[in-house]
Amino acid sequence: MRKLLTVILWVVIALGGAAALGAIALERDEPLNATWLVVAAVCCYLIAYRFYSAFIAARLMALDENRATPAERLDNGRDFVPTNKWVLMGHHFASIAGPGPLVGPTLAAQFGYLPGTLWLVVGAVLGGAVQDFVVLFGSIRRNGKSLTQMAREEVSRTTGLVALFAILSILVILLAVVALVVTNALKESAWATFTIAATMPVAMLMGLYLRFWRPGRILEATALGLGLVVLAVVSGQWVAESPAWAAAFTWPAMTLALLIIVYGFAASALPVWLLLAPRDYLSTFIKLAVTFALAAGILFTRPDIQMPALTRFVDGTGPIFAGTVFPFCFITIACGAVSGFHSLISSGTTPKMITREGHARMIGYGSMLLESLVGVMAMIAACVLQPGVYFAINSPAGIVGATTGEAAATISAWGFPLEAGTMNELARSVGEQTLLNRTGGAPALAVGMAHIFSNTLGGARLLGIWYHFAIMFEVVFILTVLDTGTRVARFMLQDFLGHVWKPLGRTSWYPSVLATSALVVGAWGYFLYQGVKDPLGGINSLWPLFGISNQLLATVALIVMTTIIIKMGKRRLAWVTLAPAAWLVSVTMTASWQKIFHSNPRIGFLSQARELSERLATGAVPAEQVGEVERLIFNNQLDAVVTAALASMVLIVILAAAWEWYGILSGRKEAVLHETPYVVSQWAEAD
Amino acid sequence: MENDKREMTGRNLVSAIRHLSSRVWGFLREASGETAYERYAKKARGSCASGSPDGKDSVLSPDEFHRQQLEEKYSKPNRCC
Predict the structure, then answer these.
(1) What tens digit of pLDDT does each residue of A537-573 get?
(2) How many CB pairs under 8 A join A and B?
(3) Out of B31, B44, B78, whose CB is closest to A90?
(4) Cβ of B43 under 8 Å from any chain A Cβ?
(5) What is the reported pLDDT for B57?
(6) Burial of A258 (C-beta count, 10 Å sphere; 0-12/13-18/19+)
(7) Which end of chain B is more exposed for a tag (fewer CB within 10 A), N or C?
């Protein structure tokens, strides 16, 4: 009877998913209701989790509930700790879910809602969740070893070294691009800048509270911090309405960029308990709460999607970033579909805290599906906006013009009707001076979220509060990525420099701490500066670079895991990781090639540098702009070199792994696995 | 009889709510990391009692434990993009 009910349940889920996909495929004359996207995505996730992840767990990994995990064998109450699976899933999800699944889909919505949504679902089910799951499995079987350690042991020393450099490069690009998103979200906005500035003393107050007044009382301190942050959001309106205070907090992009650089340096060099850790507590709670609130808001309001399924910009002429739907949709959405960075989390803290091998399926595969759902919700929030409004917010002045009149004329000519008054009215209703040319995705997403939230609670009266609440939500955890990322990059650099001169490797020696923090901040700060100065908005060049680097890391992770699968004697099942790796190689290599060599100056770095050089040579550049144009030429050449270096690193990993596979499969080399020996779990008999 | 039943149901309800709230509170404390030191100290003292070579002095104070935990946590990738 139970079995019959289960079969009926899965048939209902399959039919529900098919019906939702059918509605999406056939709905063309009227706006599509967002509920169909959510139902289709959730049904796909459920089916993939129930059947595909179970197949991988049983046939490929042979997860064994009776095999003791590192958390059980090495339990020391500190880093190796058997943890409740729901608690650990919460930790893992909070670690993997950053701004990527929010910003990427928002930017990719320029192609229409369909390509991005399909990639989010299919990419996560067959690629991203698989990567997270298998890397977690590999690390559990190796005492919680990191991806670079696994690469070194299972493939070759070169692979481990290349993976280390790839991670460091990716961190630098990631930090620059998220800093640019923050800059664009806060520029010329007194309300948003005040709110975010207020979170710094709030975090420090929490740090002092936890250190001196109530040590270890994290929930109390977080509740206090959350209350103060909400107060900061509300009082930001008074700041924006006061001419004197508004002037004090209205800063141009370059000033904000410099302040963010100073913040990154301070967070890296200051004691971690004072600023970084309490901000992380705050952002984690806000992130989880707002994600659930957004899901509830979408289901409650069931908004209509205003964006068409496909826009004319699939041809590569998009205003937000240039490039055709293949490959650029697939690198613009990295987190939410496939994110290489997750492999660092799956081979970081999580494998050291997992109690039973069987939990890896829910934590590794399941958490990634949840992140993908967050991406789908971000896509919905961006697509419930009128397309004209969406393009006006996200397009740089260099493409649509710097006034609402120019932008309305340009965007209307593309076939997305927009009146200048609409943008002015929208800016007024959210308490901003302007929403035009606010590139980076965060403001557009905040407007979409504010619409959903205000339709759920408070109506148009609270639109301004909800908009700034959404901006606060996005920026607070982007800054968490920024400060933790800077610190991690500093540790990696110190680790490397320690081999050159030992004192440089000491993480408590202040001269080294300051020097390496400055080096890391200087590296991402340069790219941030370049993005702020870019007349095309910076996102056009930096976001694709970030997407390429993130997915190249995913390729490395999947290639390393394919090697392990082959060594396990499961070569017939190697397609599980090899297929997504092959797709990512084709996407990232095509994108890298186009970003370097494409003849369209908006896409190819070298052709843009060439075009600018020609303008300089023909004297078409006014004398006062010569210095700036020379810098732009250099920046484009630098971006081309960075892209080529990243692509080369991955080619090295692929060649090294292919050589290893050839050796094993041809019988010339013995397959040596570096798994820890089997130990029976103390809980084995309980089953 | 009727009153007794109602009183019993009321008591059961209160006890169920108490039980649930205590479980939710416990979950939140564990998820936030508040219980980390308690768990560590229990484990470390257990090791001392069973003659671990660490010796009793190796049990960290709450302050040392939290500082080390934070240093460790924020020295490797723990927040994704």
Answers:
(1) 788 889 999 999 999 899 999 999 999 999 999 999 9
(2) 115
(3) B31
(4) yes
(5) 55
(6) middle
(7) N
- Among A7, A8, A686, A24, smallest CA distance to A356 is for A686
Amino acid A166: pLDDT: 83
For residue B70, give how far its alpha carbon lies from the nearest alpha carbon of chain A (Å). Answer: 7
DSSP string, A18-73: HHHHHHHHH--SSPEEHHHHHHHHHHHHHHIIIIIIHHIIIIII---TTBPPHHHH
Separation of alpha carbons A650 and A663, rounded Å: 20
pLDDT over 70 at A461, yes or no: yes
Structure tokens at A348: 């970081």
> Alpha carbon of B78 to those of A114, A162, A277, B12, B81: distances in Å?
32, 21, 12, 43, 10
A334 CB near a chain B CB, below 8 Å?
A: yes
Report the pLDDT value the prediction gives residue A535, as an integer from 0 to 100: 81
Within 8 A of A281 by CB-CB distance, chain B residues are 32
The tokens of A440 are what? 């980076």
B75 and A491 within 8 Å at the Cβ level: the answer is: yes
pLDDT of A240 above 90:
yes
Set of chain A residues whose Cβ sits within 8 Å of the Cβ of B79: 95, 98, 280, 480-481, 484-485
3-state secondary structure of A304: strand
Report the mean per-residue pLDDT for chain A. 93
Q: Give the span between the Cα atoms of A466 and A484, in whole angstroms.
A: 27
Q: Is the pLDDT of residue B53 over 70?
A: no
A395 with A439: CB under 8 angstroms? Answer: yes
List all residues 6 or more positions away from A650 whose beta carbon is below 8 Å from its beta carbon.
A166, A552, A555, A556, A585, A588
Geometric angle at alpha carbon A385, from A37 and A45, rounded to 5°: 20
Does the pLDDT of residue A282 top 80, yes or no? Answer: yes
CB contact under 8 A, A335 and B70: no
Give the pLDDT mean for A11-16: 96
Average pLDDT in the A642-646 region?
Answer: 94
**Probe site for chain B from A218, A355, A493 (most B CB atoms < 10 A):** A218
Q: What confidence category does residue A328 fall into, taking pLDDT thresholds of 50, 70 and 90?
A: very high
Q: What angle do CA A245, A246, A250 make, to 5 degrees?
A: 125
pLDDT over threshold 70, residue A104:
yes
B63 in contact with A, Cβ within 8 Å:
yes
CA–CA separation, A340 and A486 (whole Å)? 18
Classify residue A639 by its DSSP letter: H
- The rounded percent of chain A whose pLDDT value lies above 90 is 84
- Predicted TM-score (pTM) of the model is 0.93
Determine whether A511 is exposed, middle or buried from the number of CB atoms within 10 Å of its CB (0-12, 13-18, 19+): exposed
